[in-house]
Protein 1
Amino acid sequence: MIAALAPLSFLAQSATGNSFDVPANVVFYIVAAFMVFAAIRVVTTDNIVHAALWLILVLSGVGLNFLLLQAEFVAITQILVYLGAIVVLFLFGIMLTRAPLGRADDLDNNMRPIGVAVGLLLTAVIAFALIRTFGNDSLTFEAYAGSQAVAGNNRTTALANEIFGPQLIPFEVLSVLLTAALIGAIVLARRD
Amino acid sequence: MLLNQFLLLAAILFSIGVYGVIVRRNGVLVLMSIELILNSVNINLIAFSTYHGLGGQVFALFVIAVAAAEVGVGLAIVLLIYRNRRSVDIDALDELKG
Amino acid sequence: MWFLTHTWIMPALMALSFLAILAVGKRLPKKGSEIGVAAVGICFVLALLTAGSWWQHTNDTGESGEHASGVLAVAPGAGDAEEHDPEAFSDVEQGCSRVVDEADHEGNSEKAEADHEGDTEGEEHSSGIAPGESASAESTAVATAEEGEGHAATKPVVRCFTWFDNGPADSSTITVGTMVDGQSVFMLVVVGLISLLVHIYSTDYVNGDRRYTHYFAFLSLFTASMMFFVLAQSTLQMIVGWELVGVCSFALIGHWWEEKPNSNAALKAFLTNRVGDIGLLVGMIILYFAAGRSFSILDINILAASGGISHGLLLVASVCLLAAVMSKSGQFILHTWLPDAMAGPTPVSALIHAATMVVAGIYLVARLYPVFFEGLSIAGSSVNLLAVVGAVTAMFGALLAFVQKDVKKVLAYSTISQLGFMVTALGVGAWTAAMFHLFTHAMFKACLFLGAGSMSHAAHHSFNMVDDYGGLRKIMPRTFWTFIIATGALAGIFPLSGFWSKDEILAGHGTFFSEGGNGTYHVMLAMLIIGAFCTAAYMTRTIWYCFYGEYRGVGTPHESGPRITVPLIILATLGAVVGFLNLPKSIGPINFPESLHTQFEQFVEPVGAYFPSISHAEFNVPLALFSLAVAGLGVLLPYLYYFKGGLAPIRDLSERNALARWGKNVLVNKYYFDWLYTDVITGFVKGPLARAANWFNAKVLDGIVDGVGAGAVVTGQWVYENIDQEVVDGAVNAAGTTATETGGVLRYLQSGRIQQYAALFFAAAALLAGVFVVATG
Amino acid sequence: MLALLAQASDVFTKPTVDYHALAPELILVGTIIVLALVDSWKLERARPVMSAIAGLGLLAALVPVITLAVDGTDRVLLDGGYVVDSMSLVLKALFIVSAYVVVLLSINYMAEGDYWESEYYTLLICSVLGMTVMASSRDLIGIFIALELLSIPAYMLAAWRKGDERSNEAGMKYYLMGVFATGILLYGMSLAYGLGGSTNLEAIGLQLADLGSDGVPVVALALLFTIIGFGFKVSAVPFHTWAPDTYEGAPTPVTAFLAVASKAAGFVALIQVTYFCFIVRSDVIEPIFFVLSISSMTVGNLIALRQSNVIRMLAYSGIAQAGFMLAPFAVASSDPALSLQAVVTYLVIYAAMNLGAFAVIIAIARRTRSAELEDLGGLFTYMPGLAVAFTLFLASLIGIPPLGGWWAKFGVFASLIEADSGLGWTLAIVMAVNTAIAAYYYLAVARAMWFDDVPEGTDTSPVRTPATLGFAVVITLIATLLFGILPQVVNDVTDFGLVALGG
């Protein structure tokens, strides 16, 4: 799967320098349309298992976006962690709570209008602010050019240097966080 | 490619996620909606990191890891509630109020 | 001098007594009261010695009041900082006031050049800098030497230690200490005296109470708090003392807390005071910054008096502080707690009303007088907030006192009214008059409260004078006579003390009657005169109900024991004579000898850079006669109504008094109206009109018949029922209700449903984002 | 391949780690490991010693905090991402001591309630570790991770009474609202990163200062969303809704922990982002804090008036107190040092008095089995010591001198008035009114204890309070009194001057 994605990354890299990024744009818009549709299905579908499946599409789309943005390592992590772990967790959750596997008409509460209003308001405000601020700024990938030089064309190494350099303490703290989550989740979820 | 096309996509995902957490009654579905919100943040971070270097990517990795932990904890709490109430309808959790 | 620098012993001793009583009181033979009485006795002696020492000190400084007072009365420049003479603050310890320190510093260098020859002066100066008590001998010489220059400033004795440094950023230190000048010394004596008498009285009065020990412990703490407040060197200490006084009153008012109304009264007192406390806190913080980050009272006063603080800031600060004064001293509209506070034991009421709690507000204004004087522009104007609040309170309080059945409530409203007099006096610039009235009022009001307690002691713990008293004159002669004397003093009958102090206040208004005031406050004068009239009238009514007629209560009343009557006699005597302490210089053609007149003023009133230069009104014979006449009328009308109304035929009165004649005519008219309505206009108008007539009879005509004084009863009743109980209490309650109702509505937000929370969360975020994005975009 | 890696790794410069600076955190991590090991080695037999280990670990972590404070030099690690200075040390000490008191509160509660004890302490210490990291982080990533480390264990602790549906509900509400807040926070942080070009707060601040104020509404968005994310943590209205429900449902020691330490950590996060970064755009953040502060103090107080449950009342009063603490942020720019000092002073004093109040409630509930106001009636007659202590804590919360709460309020008033701005004066007035309102419901509790009758059927025989609980009451009481009578103590440690802000 990852191998299949490699050309995409190549495609994106070819777009560096801002001269010719039509193919990347085409891919982006197709993926974006899918993602939005899938995301809407996640929050509207009346089948809980379908929601999880639509979520897979959204998360994969996010991974594709990362590739378009030349963040291969993050993209791979995204796929591994989300598809490999989180969605599986969701499926386990669905099974363990005996959720109805077919259609169910009681998945939503009576607050749809409020939800729509809040969602639209947020979109409008954020979109207005983004458009006013960033306008037509195009992506240049300048920052990556520098890190490539430093790390011998190996951005993953540069990423590692970043994590184990300036972000060392947060990284170590994260390990404690995962341990704590593990301990607590076991205590809460187990029968006793 | 424009910066804004990614940012706007993220904003839309964010809002859809917000809609989801407001209207979904099933605890697991609420957690899924939360994932939409967190992923929109990651798109933002990666898009900005093309300008500012790898800090954003590191941030995104941390967010992914934390999201995994949060989902785990969330599902544990959902399971706990399911065990006591035989239901994951979070809309019915209104014993504490006022 | 030792006594002036060691005043801290008094509050410390009382605090120690509080702890000792709590710790071992229950195990002592007298249940701890002996500790309290002994401690307060020592304090009183110390207070007297301090007063003597201060007397010495002022005489040393000023030797001669003649020049001093001459200067004071007119000298406009006495308060200017530029002219201020550093010698005036030679008894201020280094570090207690930044302004003085700086002035000293400058003065020092100048002096070094200028006053080479004056050896004594140089020495005096160094002794001023070195914190010591050695100054008295030299300072005498110096002060007398400076006499010639025409400045005889009060020399406050300030001692302090550093509590803590408020950070190196601004290098301001917060100090704690004592500031002793005439004002605090006189207040110490009052607190000591009243507290001592109340202690002695209480040993009998609350004898056998189950919380006897607890009661005495809190009396001690109450006294300690008030002394701490009085002696405060910094405004911070004042806040602490102020709050402590509030807490003690909370404990004592709620002494018999098993009864619901008592604990409610305690809570109401506390809550109302909280409102003011916030004003105090804010006001003090404003002053702290205005005075360049200093809590020192001396700093604040000097800067305020010399224009070192802008008028705007002083105005805001004085309004904030006024809120505090209004709640603490029961000024209209925050007075409602005070009558309720009668739920406490009577000696506590006496203490609260005469010497502690409620006069704390007056003391605060007097202490920070430059702030109010400049902030509210007291000089040269004809109206200001302080005077308005005071005058309204003086008038309304007196009206309200009319309609009370409970003798303690009469006295409570009377206190409100008299505090209004003091506040008005401060508001019109008659500082000394206010302090003098505080002094005299403490004596006779304490006497009245203790007298009321004595009567209730006799009448089975009832305070309902209308239903349960009567005819006590024969049975309790000592109580009766002391009560009569105190009443006379309160009503302002010549030559009792109240006459002198009240008259000084009235003269201080600077109206067409009198000259030399700080402004021309016509309206306030009129209101105070109405208040004075009512005062005389309601007290006469009280006397009637308590002491005349037949005994209406249960059981056989008897005179109280010596521990109750002796304090009464002492207080009545003082209430009669202390007025002579501040005799005016002359009354018409009679000139008083120098050793007699204005002693109180010289002793108490601060002069110098830390006090505004106020001018004093001369004693004015027409005004005095007029106010005496008003008071006489106030006594006379109820006398005619209550005492004679039932006994002598009405026509007898009408020949003696024009107003009574008018009253009699009205009385006849009442009958006439009755006849008119019932007999002549019969028929179709009979029903409604008769009812109206009956109403008219009952409500209006009776009122007219009762004359002006009784008309005031109706007004008072109306004010009591409609304004005091409805509007004011209603507003207070409504504010509370609105707050809780709003809380109730807001509570629905808290539905318990997570997703409504989520919707609120994100909607709020989105709305805020929208607002800020549009605002900044 | 390995050679390639080795070659690549030579450009990696190993960060120098100052182990002294990290000692408090390392000791806490060590404590976590010891707890886990002892638990798995001794199993059930280990339960009685768990609390002791946790308590000792916390006290041990306090030692390097003190040595660092004595040393006095500011230590900057990881390119400015992690700073150990006087302010962070004060806050670390605050967190550790608060957690220690919470451990004292928990011992009997946990042992008698048959809860998962060793895991409880493990999670508690994890959360404290997150707080101490928060106190030093000057980097968005560090702050975010620290926030998550302190929050995620707390979500689970709120649901710790597993069999109790109310506790489950409390945990669920706390968790969901927390995650929503995390979402908003991250979105704001991502925008801040985008605008600032770095995750380092100081760098972002410099960049934000350079951006013009026109045409960049995203700045407002970034700042607002970040502040809202932490506003949840400090339970600022309208992001407070979880607090009363969670406080009521969670185990009471956990409630104390949430109400004090967790809230303080939220404030610390706000301090970090505000004073080290966002302050350059005071035109944006001051109105935000103004709105949050006014709505928090007013709404919190008004709803508190209607509460009949003391814990819920404390929850709403905590919301109102958060409003007071937010007030100095609204005048942050006029005198940063003064307003920062006001906030930290308030935090320290608030921790003492609020923990004390919870300690007393836990002690009382051992007898009354309830925190309803009516069940506290006549408490003075059979638990005089606790009634007096509770009264003192309540009086301190009202702000009556000479108790600590007074000095805290004084600092806030001082900073508001000193700022002499419209926002400052408005806040001062609203706060004054609110302080007066607040007295009412605090005194209602005092009145119930002192004046009301003992409810029917209450056992009024003398009660023995466990030593640890008594100790907790005593130390918080001493602190409350000490801070009021000698404000010098707290004043000295919270006076960071301009050094801390120099960054």
Protein 2
Amino acid sequence: MSCCRKIVHPYIPNSSPETKKEILDFIGADSIEELLVDIPQELRMKGDMDLPEPCLSEAELCRHMDSILEKNTSVRQAISFLGAGCYSHQVPAIVDEIISSGEFLTAYAGEPYEDHGRFQAMFEYQSMMAELLDVDVCNVPTYDGAQAAGNALRMASRIVGRKTVIMAGAINPDRRKVVETYLDSILSIKTVGYDGETGLVDLKDLSEKLDETVAAVFVENPTYLGAIETQGQTISEMAHKIGAMFVVFVDPSSLGVLQPPSRYGADISCGDIQPLGIHMHYGTGGGFIATADDPKIVEEYPSRLFSVAPTSHGEWGFGDVLWERTSFANRDSCKEFVGTHAALWGIAAGVYLATMGPKGMEDLGREIMQRSLYAKKLLSSVPGVKVDRFKSTSFKEFVVDLNGTGKTVEELNRYLLDKGIFGGKDISKEFPELGQAALYCVTEMVSPRDIETLVEAIRSFVE
Amino acid sequence: MSCCRKIVHPYIPNSSPETKKEILDFIGADSIEELLVDIPQELRMKGDMDLPEPCLSEAELCRHMDSILEKNTSVRQAISFLGAGCYSHQVPAIVDEIISSGEFLTAYAGEPYEDHGRFQAMFEYQSMMAELLDVDVCNVPTYDGAQAAGNALRMASRIVGRKTVIMAGAINPDRRKVVETYLDSILSIKTVGYDGETGLVDLKDLSEKLDETVAAVFVENPTYLGAIETQGQTISEMAHKIGAMFVVFVDPSSLGVLQPPSRYGADISCGDIQPLGIHMHYGTGGGFIATADDPKIVEEYPSRLFSVAPTSHGEWGFGDVLWERTSFANRDSCKEFVGTHAALWGIAAGVYLATMGPKGMEDLGREIMQRSLYAKKLLSSVPGVKVDRFKSTSFKEFVVDLNGTGKTVEELNRYLLDKGIFGGKDISKEFPELGQAALYCVTEMVSPRDIETLVEAIRSFVE
Amino acid sequence: WDEPIIFQLSEPGHRGILLPCAGSEVEAEVGDGLSSIPSSMRRTDLPELPEMGQLQVLRHFNHLAQENLGVDYNIDIGQGTCTMKYSPKVNEGFVSSHKVADIHPCQDQSTVQGALEIMYLLGECFKEICGLDYFSMQPGGGSHGALAMASMVKAYFRDKGEDRDEVITTFYSHPADAAVPIAKGFKVTVLPPDEDGLPDLDAFKAALSERTAAIFFTNPEDTGIFNSRIKEFTGLAKAAGALCCYDQANANGLLGIARAKEADFDLSFFNLHKTFASPHGCGGPATGLVAARDYLRDYLPAPLVVKNGDTYSLDWDLPKSCGKVKSFYGTLPSIIRAYAWIMSLGADGLKEASMIAILNNNYVMKKLLAIKGLSMAYPHHGARIEQVRYSWGKMKEDTGFGTGDVQRRIADFGTHYWSSHEPWVIPEPCTIEPSESYSKEDLDEYCAILERISYECYNEPETIKGAPHNSTIHHVDHDVLDDPTRWAITWKAYKKKYDGYFNKK
Amino acid sequence: WDEPIIFQLSEPGHRGILLPCAGSEVEAEVGDGLSSIPSSMRRTDLPELPEMGQLQVLRHFNHLAQENLGVDYNIDIGQGTCTMKYSPKVNEGFVSSHKVADIHPCQDQSTVQGALEIMYLLGECFKEICGLDYFSMQPGGGSHGALAMASMVKAYFRDKGEDRDEVITTFYSHPADAAVPIAKGFKVTVLPPDEDGLPDLDAFKAALSERTAAIFFTNPEDTGIFNSRIKEFTGLAKAAGALCCYDQANANGLLGIARAKEADFDLSFFNLHKTFASPHGCGGPATGLVAARDYLRDYLPAPLVVKNGDTYSLDWDLPKSCGKVKSFYGTLPSIIRAYAWIMSLGADGLKEASMIAILNNNYVMKKLLAIKGLSMAYPHHGARIEQVRYSWGKMKEDTGFGTGDVQRRIADFGTHYWSSHEPWVIPEPCTIEPSESYSKEDLDEYCAILERISYECYNEPETIKGAPHNSTIHHVDHDVLDDPTRWAITWKAYKKKYDGYFNKK
């Protein structure tokens, strides 16, 4: 239905004919067309873009968008056991309130004077992450944890002066693909497997592959398959012994109850802040890199780092540490690049951590542990279902082994979906050695009753 | 499932035991209980309140609330033809953005210095209403249009010094009940009917009942049954002739295309601002009263009235006109009362009017007219359905007469509901003389396609 | 920001939003729509509203917002009697959902079961909170709650055939407790405070008669003093055949502690926007929930929400009802917020809120009374409930600066301060109500500001005289506001009276 | 506000939010959960995060927000190259809906058809907008888009078995066009500007060789000058066997006017947060949508969104793919906003946006060039596209005040001003990009501010020296920021290095 009126668009105020004419008169041009002199006709688009009829009013736009988005089923409308690098956690309403404020949402790159709030918020984010991680330096967020991992390994390579890194243990395959892109053409990767019995890093394999060409050893903790990696200190010592750095990718939501990597020898901690109060958005993220306050390391950060600084009148001022280090200042001889990354998620994570406080983070860890244990206990009562594939302790995620049921994960998940349950991620293709296995995630958003519902459904399916 | 941890509530920071103790120590009390000395035991509640187990976390609260609210079907999920005093119009997103800002949402009653923004926003609201209504004075919103009508009639009574008012024509019955409450024990009401042929005020009946005891004649325009009341000038002259005032309740959404009451002799215009960018919320509202800038009239307003005022430094200052007039200043000898009414809706309506501008209000009127005409045209093609019960022009609402179909409105509406359509309001009980009749409302939110869907459904029902 | 009046921002032809367009096919069917309007009623000139792009409108109101102070932005304990507590943000999500925002009051009740259920459940909660039996959520604010009560009193005695037209209230009750019954046609007696600051019992006895329809009492009163003898008053009133109406605007110190029921009230109202954490919205919309004893159910405003099995519905069958006070059924957003707030705290949490509100109030009281020039009314009441009315009378004597001067100056510290309801019997009053929402550090900071201002009044008078210094605007000329030739209640009126900046035409 | 660092607001035991509690029954079943953690990994000390009530956290960040300036609050045309346009509020409703915010990337594709459909439809729109054929929305920003292009170039030549390791970019292209290929291991040649400010064609010919993998060009460049000869460059590059990569960060003046296709580019990226109205969020999250010719489809980051019948799905079957640049599939919020923005304007509206952006830019240019001390680079290009790089070189010579001084002072007028990307070849540069979002009055006001500052530089130097005067903070000591013994990147580090206010330990 085409609109029959002349349009002055609300987002383009000067499209008002009166204003347009006033401006053209001032410029001394007859038409805007005249201002396009530099664009030769051969480069011009011929004709009009063939786009759908627009929804010029908000009401029509809302109807159109609603009609599409309605096709999504959100985790608020289901019971979800999905994790694998993106997590459904409680997002305090004030996080959304603050990051949706026009002041933060629509700002960009002002100076410390008129964008003081952004600088302070980012400094506070860095500082709260530092408490969580027990380190002295943390960066402004990268695009996601995968980039943070890639950056961290490149930093390590530059610091140590070597060109090979080891990725050890069960690594998130999606993340690994991104890391490969960051390392491609610059660094080479050696892979170390996981121990079939514990699910932790295969130390034997590691010690075989670790040599003096290695710049860094990279592990995830918890591992992709959910195990709490308890060998951190040992791996750290192995790496340090040959002069390599130890890089740990850690789930920050675990750090109210698990030791931060810096305490078991990690030189660089990195990870994704999405679990810290950021909605999933079909897979978003924001990465952190955290280290000691060593100028040799700080020099190698690709990201912006905000420091507190004194002002002439005694306020808290802020600014960029080692600006010349960044690709903003030094594009032609940069080591890596920086740009518009994920600052708003940093503000979100800052608000989240301030809201949670120390006890909130501890409660979070406890709730996750208790519910996971409860889920594993109930699941293990289902004939043929095993949750003890690995002899290690899991945090938040664990492998559910269906091999004893004669059914595939795909079949089960289809069954569960009909009952409004998103079963755990099917990892039977990613980890064929595990056979029919799914990665289940249990956060504080999964209630004991949800777990019971799941287990009843699985029981009725396998029986 | 009862919580097994000790609670320090996020909304009650000093419930932290550490803080509680610090404060008690400072006060010199051992317990808060000690501070309750003035409340005798016999007035104390025995035992605890028996309330449901709380949802202490936001996640649990959201699940609980979602599970209840899910049971509502909103007009975004249906096609709605309901009006009758509450209207579904396009609400610009910036209206919600601004009235949900903490600065306006959580403020109350500050002074012109620190709450300057509220004063200015309210002055601007009054001013934009004045343009729409073509008057010089408009008040801060009352609870709703019904109160505004009640207030207006009481104002008229005090100004004229008489104790009877006439309510003429087809009046919204729900609104009338509220007006009666406002007038009860103070004024008496005479009722004048509507002309059976036109649906407009029955002038003969009016002239019979109009005498020198009458303080005011009250009409709605459009009338409850949707007709544009074209006899305003005549009624005004009749009222003025015997020294009565003319009070018109007007739908502000019509005023881009219909004459404002002040132009056909209304001494007081009043109405509901809900159509101006305020969500329906199951029936909310905010009332306006608007008049000439005559001190005799201004004196009689019960509401706050903000004026612009100069400041010592040349800014735009604001303040309350004739503060001593209000019940805030003068409770013991007040004429009416004022209190927390509906200021936020006033800000909403102000943002709405500024966003719409003159052309937006005209477009609104045109869209309503075109769509209503289209609906009436299509409906009249359905066998037995009549839309020309009254020989007058309607705006936004009109009567659909089902008497020729042999079906009841209730039956039809049940049928429509199954198809996701909210049929027009059943008025066969309110206006028994009309038989099986429904009041249909068509705003700009009802698309031509929606109308076609309705008509197809009705056709399949009656055939 | 030095923000212009919005009309000054208008630019010709600019648009803030477009309307859905019915399209040329419909136009071909029915014409332009406008020409069918009878010509006498057709407006052809457009209203002179501002013409602005959407960003320009948004920015203007954002600037105005930033010139406003809400609970979310300051330590809002200086607006005593208003209970400026935190309105949890999580509740805003419920209210802004289309499931609440976009439902129509005439929808079939099967499609609004969620709304009805919450109204019903909130009533169930209030059965415990106040001990009374039936509820109406129709009133749009506290005064409106008083109107509902006054209307019910009328309806009750009309039904009983008794001719009673007097109401008794007290000096430190809210202004509405006098104003509303007066507006409803009652004669109102305002009891003076006795030496304890409480309503004078002898005066009460003298006022009470067979003409007395009702008493309208706030308790604790705006002094923060709980009337320990309240049951004597209600007892005497009942003995005289009057109804006892409880203004519970000051309930924030009483949840789970003292109720209307135990004090023998018949009717009561609560401000959901004060005690129950619905935000104040610059002054509404709000809800003044009315509660009644079972024997007064019939007089409540219709309709009531009732439950049959698992279904909720509206009961309009109240032939003796006092009528309606508001179109439709009430302000759903504040009803939902109040319910959510109660559910987020539970019985223990509600009581804790009151206990901490009391603790905070007594803490602030002790700190403030140490400030030079500041005292409180009725000082021998050592412990207060949730607020205290203070007096700068001594400072006024000493320095000439009183509560109005403090009010001007405090704007410079980015916070609020409200003198008190009129009339001022306590000299140079102010009322501080800390509520449970503020932390110890917040309270310390606020007290320090008042201490600083006192210091300035005594030692740096020039600072006070010129205040506010940091506010958006400077001293407002108030004379204009009472002068019909100079006030300008709308921009239209301004343009008629003035040229430029207040140059009278 | 003089807002403390958040750690200074901590009060012992205060809580901002509670977690759902599994309850005592679960605890009875499985214990406290924590004791099952291996002791070497069990953290027993709690992280020293601030302890605050919810209102206190909210108020703190609200105060910080008020110390920040977004598009919604100022005339944000001073951050040239950033395209600070209005992000329509209506789109925020879509993004904050649980249908977008709360969906998981591993959900069964049948439950995320809405998300996939919008990604698909947005691609369809871009087929028209840039004329290329396939799209990835994985990149999280403009530089990330460049990374995707650089990775695709690698993958392409690896697949072809060609060993090319050089990239050519231009001086006034975005910094990322040099920085990203360098980071990806390419050798990068930066073409200097010729006397017209455009990339030097001779230098280009000299740089081009069989080692050249790709060119990375921005057009118009950050000067606002459109490179009319762009097709000569792409033609030469293609003749040399290189791929042509188009950085479309400056596309806001070209919608419906000039496209990647007509200029013969192979790859291109767009910033959905600049040209397509997704808000900048203080610097992301964002999307750098990558577009490719059909013959480069195989090298795009996996997965792509495809349509089969009425069903949308993710196609992972791209064995030659350059890999992934981001976990999962991209930043859905900016994808949705961009789609909604396009749908709210349509083809005519998009072109109108560009036309008005150009009009506004040329208007501002004429006004600014009348200001004393301000000139523009390459003045003989009389008409510019969507932005202009100006120079205060003359004023610096005359008064000693340059672009940094203007930047300090403009904060006092409540708006932004950005010098320019480094390195500064144009002396004392600044870049103004008016976009289509600002009204004539807005533009006039901004120009008047710069005029006023120029006046002050020439006539009231003291005003400039002490600036900013009205900002929250005063002059920041920048030396600290480059000194490892003095910088403090976290509060933890601050406490180790300092006592009180910057007293070195």
